Amino acid sequence: MLGLFLIGVSVSAAVVLLAKFATADGDFTLLSKGPPKREEVEDKVVWITGASRGIGEILAKQFAELGAKLILSARNVAELERVKSELVGKHVPHGVEILPLDLASGEEKLKEAVEKAESFFSAAGVDYMVHNAAYERPKTTVLDVSEEGLRATFNINVLGTITLTQLLAPYMLKRGKGHFVVMSSAAGKTPAPGQAVYSASKYALNGFFHTFRSELCQKGIKVTVVCPGPIETSKVSQPQSSGQSVTSEKRVSSERCAELTIVAATHGLKEVWISNQPVLFVMYLVQYMPTIGYWFMDKIGGNRVEAAARKGNTYGWSLFFNQKKKTT
């Protein structure tokens, strides 16, 4: 009887776990941590790149509400001013600085930006560096990637981000503390058919920052790598042109992505995944059963590129089952 009881308990626990996983929008460690820790960011200086729209804009608003001082960077100054005007928080507006920045502008310009950032707020220095800016082109096949697109993606996503980190890190080391929050991607953990170059740039970021943390963590430097899957970055639905199908992609909202990112940072997590299913399932599969995970991705690769071309759903389960019959 005891054996049957234990089996029943185990089965019930497994069912509950599977139900939670099916409805999860992040990895289990992340979702177990509760709300952001306000005390970790209140009165701290947070520098956000790509802060003029999307996740960067929402991160700025949520950090401001938690009492942080902010440095907002992007190329579009007018949009940065708009974001600043919409912030609400303990240090708004006097604790918010706008610092125009182009990650592809070269080392000298980035050095000037770092020096300005460090001089703000009575030279308090940067506590959190949120690497959010990124460059992504529309999905295309590997063979259609241009050299211009390759260089543009790596100049911003990899070279500019790494250079900015190398320039800022010495200031943090001198203070004995600093935290880099890196907005990577699920495409940096799994194959991403139709996004080969973007995926490669995110794999590069993951490799650099995990190594960077391993080298400097004993000197007070923290790194949190965030890997979101599909995120809804606009509240406005884009009209579908003639011949295009309406997508049914279920995406995590920008607000939820930003919230979970701050949870991860304030709880000191090293890497987190943010996504609905099936992307979250694929990330676990590739991480823990890579042979099966890559087989799964090989099955959907061609279908995903075709779905992107017709503006269809590029993240649904249907990609796996929609296999075309071979013609003889």
Automatic annotation (TrEMBL):
Q: Which UniProt keywords apply?
A: Signal
Q: Is the Signal keyword given for this protein?
A: yes
User: Signal sequence span per UniProt?
Assistant: 1-26
Chain ranges of the Ketoreductase domain = 44-233
- Record-level GO cellular component terms: membrane
Q: What InterPro entries does this protein map onto?
A: KR_dom (IPR057326), NAD(P)-bd_dom_sf (IPR036291), Sc_DH/Rdtase_CS (IPR020904), SDR_fam (IPR002347)
The molecule here is called: 11-beta-hydroxysteroid dehydrogenase-like 2
Query: What is the originating organism of this protein?
Result: Acorus calamus (Sweet flag)
| Taxonomic classification | Eukaryota, Viridiplantae, Streptophyta, Embryophyta, Tracheophyta
